[in-house]
RNA sequence: GGGGUGGUAGUUAAGUUGGUUAUAACGCCGGCCUGUCACGCCGGAGGCCGCGGGUUCGAGUCCCGUCCACCCCGCCA
């Protein structure tokens, strides 16, 4: 073994070899991917992080005259002595053994394999060593795999050995590298912030860490570097970035992990446009370098389109619309009010509440929306019913009213067909642009539920009809800035106004007069970057004017004392000469997921957690002994069931 | 907190109205094979049907509970 490693150093990685390497003597190290034993000649595919190469172990090559017949391949006669040993070894090796070989790269002649990049060549092995044997793995280490994720995660080190995951993690590295270079070139300093921070109520739930040196007290793990990056601006660092882990103790999803990575940026003396162009430049660079794709073909101005939040909700039902396809919503609330319900009793009730002034048109509590499935989608009735079943997982969903439009504009296959007035029907057909054979889907009731249902319906239809793939980008990239959402949200439970994002977001200038009189209509300089229906980043221009800040707090019902307790150090800092500033954080994991086309975030994170937040590999989290808790002066109240 | 889907050899799946010895493919082990690359051919081993109760003469199959994984709603400023 010491002859390899110590004397014979690796010359190439397996996946790198090409026709241009023919005739070279190479030394390769790697894992046995497959072995095909023909009795005499043995083929072994050897794998490393770059790919796979075919090794040939053939006793015939112990003879010098056989070499002479092989064009372009020469070998020292003294080296032939190991060929038979190598062949003997090849007969014994098994999958995933770690081996080292010395050999000569030759052309495969008539036997090229077009399926792999190294398929033009093979290596005739003249010397070999086994570094380590391996137990049979619980699943095959191949590119395509259908093994349950549960098992893949329990043996993550084997899963990660697969070429697609090697490629994915390398892409993450590339994104990191481009980001560091680009943001450094743009004058941003990479500065670090603490993970162990002060607990902040509200917002995402914090992970808590007992503070041994301060018995009875706890740190929180940072949910983001938000406060600290603002302090960097106050301190005059002017432009900052960090590729940083964030921790949030919330329920998980396919695009959410309890610890995740953000590309965090904060800039002084900027407005929203400045933040956008910096980030657009970053995304263009990442696409060019990592995907070899020039986004200027799609966005010649070098800018992504923008859509106000309210318009996004109206047209798509959410704040992260997938723009790879149409199927926009139509808001029929006004039409329904004008038609006094158009004969539909549920709609009449809603219309009446608007007429009586119980509901406001600017911020409607209930709405009526429609979405047209074009006749060309050619969905059968059972398929439509299956779409409806898919919506049942949304809380508050009561059913989807459909109407198939006939040649004469009447509706069939619809619970609404009998009651709708001809006038209302005709106006709806016109407004939604429905033609014969189209199916109009209706949803009405509580605004939030209608939006959620219709947003899911829109995406489900697109997937079902093949407008977009089930997952992955389908080589379509549609970016969007969603801008100016409301600053406040009314909390039904407490009857108070709450900050929709955080209390330090700058209101849109022309809405500042409404801060007290009509908080619902105050929009702010907050923005999300959306790619193919995923929010990949979000940020805001911060509120640095103490006078406006005080008015925002007032609307939120936070008095001076509360404000001091909650945000004391930040308020002091903002009064100490804070520059106008703003920033953004990009979700590094989501970006990697979208760029690689991976179906879940877990596929772009080396060691992810399950949906229950457990690590299948290590078993974390675990119960710790009483003595460890005692040292921390922490007592668990957990009672095992039963 | 709520809704849904799944768990059967190492892996992926099939398993009929509840009925003899629980199937198949791949993988694994042994043998043969000098141009394969999803090598081929012959033979073999491999199972607490997630776990715990119940119904039944009899449960992979029916019922209850529970654990685990996945998807969604709430939640994630």
Automatic annotation (TrEMBL):
It is an enzyme of class 6 (ligase). ATP binds at residues 248-250, 257, 535, 587-590. InterPro entries: Aa-tRNA-synt_II, aa-tRNA-synth_II, aa-tRNA-synth_II/BPL/LPL, Asp-tRNA-ligase_1, Asp-tRNA-ligase_1_N, Asp/Asn-tRNA-synth_IIb, AspRS_core, GAD-like_sf. The record marks 38 as: Important for tRNA non-discrimination. SUPFAM superfamilies: Class II aaRS and biotin synthetases, GAD domain-like, Nucleic acid-binding proteins. It comes from the Bacteria. Its EC number is 6.1.1.23. Its main location: cytoplasm. L-aspartate binds at residues 248, 501, 542. Residues 169-606 form the Aminoacyl-transfer RNA synthetases class-II family profile domain. It catalyses: tRNA(Asx) + L-aspartate + ATP = L-aspartyl-tRNA(Asx) + AMP + diphosphate. One of its GO terms (cellular component) is cytoplasm. PROSITE patterns: AA_TRNA_LIGASE_II. It is found in: Cytoplasm. Aspartyl-tRNA synthetase with relaxed tRNA specificity since it is able to aspartylate not only its cognate tRNA(Asp) but also tRNA(Asn). Reaction proceeds in two steps: L-aspartate is first activated by ATP to form Asp-AMP and then transferred to the acceptor end of tRNA(Asp/Asn). Homodimer. This is Aspartate--tRNA(Asp/Asn) ligase. It comes from Chondromyces apiculatus DSM 436.
């Amino acid at each position: 073994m010491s002859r390899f490693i110590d004397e014979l150093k690796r010359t190439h990685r397996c996946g790198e070899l090409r026709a241009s390497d023919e005739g070279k003597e190479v030394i390769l190290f790697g894992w046995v991917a497959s072995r095909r034993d023909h009795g005499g000649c043995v083929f072994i595919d050897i794998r490393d992080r770059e790919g796979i190469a075919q090794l040939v172990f053939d006793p015939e090559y112990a003879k010098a005259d056989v070499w002479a017949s092989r064009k372009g391949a020469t070998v020292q006669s003294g080296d032939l002595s190991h060929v038979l040993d190598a062949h003997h070894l090849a007969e014994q090796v098994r999958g995933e053994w770690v081996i080292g070989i010395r050999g000569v790269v030759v052309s495969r002649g008539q036997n090229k394999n077009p399926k792999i990049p190294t398929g033009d060549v093979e290596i005739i092995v003249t010397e070999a060593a086994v570094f380590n044997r391996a137990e049979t793995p619980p699943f095959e280490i191949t590119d395509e795999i259908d093994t349950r994720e549960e098992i893949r995660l329990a043996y993550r080190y084997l899963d990660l050995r697969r070429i697609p995951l090697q490629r994915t993690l390398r892409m993450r590295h590339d994104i990191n590298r481009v980001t560091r270079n680009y943001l450094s070139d743009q004058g941003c300093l990479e500065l670090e912030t603490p993970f162990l921070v002060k607990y902040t109520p509200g917002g995402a739930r914090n992970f808590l860490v007992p503070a041994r040196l301060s018995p009875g007290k706890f740190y929180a793990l940072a949910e983001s570097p938000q406060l600290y990056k603002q302090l960097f601006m106050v301190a005059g660092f002017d432009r900052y970035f960090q590729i940083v882990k964030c921790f949030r103790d919330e329920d998980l999803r396919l695009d959410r992990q309890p610890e995740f990575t953000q590309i965090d940026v904060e800039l002084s003396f900027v407005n929203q446009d400045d933040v956008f162009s910096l980030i657009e430049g970053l995304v263009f660079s990442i696409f060019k370098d990592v995907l070899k794709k020039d986004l200027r073909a799609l966005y010649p101005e070098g800018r992504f389109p923008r859509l106000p939040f309210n318009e996004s909700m109206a047209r798509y039902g959410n704040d992260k619309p997938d723009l790879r396809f149409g199927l926009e919503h139509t808001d029929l609330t006004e039409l329904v009010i004008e038609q006094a319900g158009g004969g539909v009793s549920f709609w009449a009730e809603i219309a009446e509440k608007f007429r009586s002034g119980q509901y406001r048109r600017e911020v409607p509590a209930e709405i009526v929306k429609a979405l047209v499935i074009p006749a060309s989608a050619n969905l059968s009735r059972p398929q439509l019913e299956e779409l409806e079943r898919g919506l049942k997982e949304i809380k508050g969903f009561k059913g989807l009213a459909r109407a198939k439009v006939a040649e004469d504009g009447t509706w069939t296959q619809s619970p609404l067909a009998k009651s709708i007035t001809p006038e209302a029907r005709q106006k709806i057909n016109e407004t939604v642009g429905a033609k014969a054979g189209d199916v109009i889907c209706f949803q009405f009731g509580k605004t939030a539920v209608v939006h959620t249902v219709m947003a899911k319906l829109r995406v489900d239809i697109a997937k079902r009809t093949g407008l977009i793939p089930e997952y992955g980008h389908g080589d379509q990239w549609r970016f969007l800035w969603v801008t100016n959402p409301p600053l406040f949200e009314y909390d039904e439970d407490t009857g108070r106004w709450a900050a929709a994002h955080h209390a330090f977001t700058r209101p849109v200038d022309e809405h500042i007069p409404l801060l007290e009189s009509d908080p619902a209509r105050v929009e702010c300089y907050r923005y999300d970057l959306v790619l193919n229906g995923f929010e990949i980043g979000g940020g805001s221009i911060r509120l640095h004017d103490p006078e406006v800040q005080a008015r925002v707090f007032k609307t939120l019902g936070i008095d001076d004392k509360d404000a001091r307790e909650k945000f004391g150090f930040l308020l002091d800092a903002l009064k100490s000469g804070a520059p106008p500033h703003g920033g953004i954080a990009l979700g590094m994991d989501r970006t990697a997921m979208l760029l690689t086309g991976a179906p879940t975030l877990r596929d772009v994170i080396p060691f992810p957690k399950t949906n229950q937040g457990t690590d299948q590999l290590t078993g974390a989290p675990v119960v710790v002994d009483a003595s460890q808790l005692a040292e921390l002066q922490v007592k668990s109240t957990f009672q095992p069931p039963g």
